[in-house]
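cron nightly-structures :: item 1 of 1
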Amino acid sequence: MIGGLEGEKVRWTDTVKTLGEKIQLLVGDCLVAAGMVSYAGPFTSQYRAELEDEWRKAIKKIGLKSTNNISMRQVLGDDVMIRIWSVAGLPNDNLSVENGIILFKSRRWPLMIDPQTQANKFIKNMGKSVETGLDIFKPSEGNLLRNLELAI
């Protein structure tokens, strides 16, 4: 058993070394991710990439360390969660995944302009997995919504 754990000691030592190096980059990486979540939501994919690049340049300019070409997706993306989103109907392109990250990492409700109804289907599918469910109102049900607000 001790001989079997010897290999783990080497792996653990490497892991500690790697984490020690990554901790030096944490502030810069998180700054890029936080800036993107806060400000990048309404923009196109190309403009988001340019904005992310500007964040990285600004961080380097003030002397903070960050991972080369760090992105919001690398910092905040969870491969398992992204796969769940994909199964729920979210397209797997980078813009859609970034939108999902912004949606789930933001503290406020986003405005979704959805001409292809992809977000609509995605939110409804995700709502099925929530214990409390999801209430859906159409604009034509304005009186129902106003009555609900008065009841709350």
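cron nightly-structures :: done
The first helix runs from residue 2 to 23.
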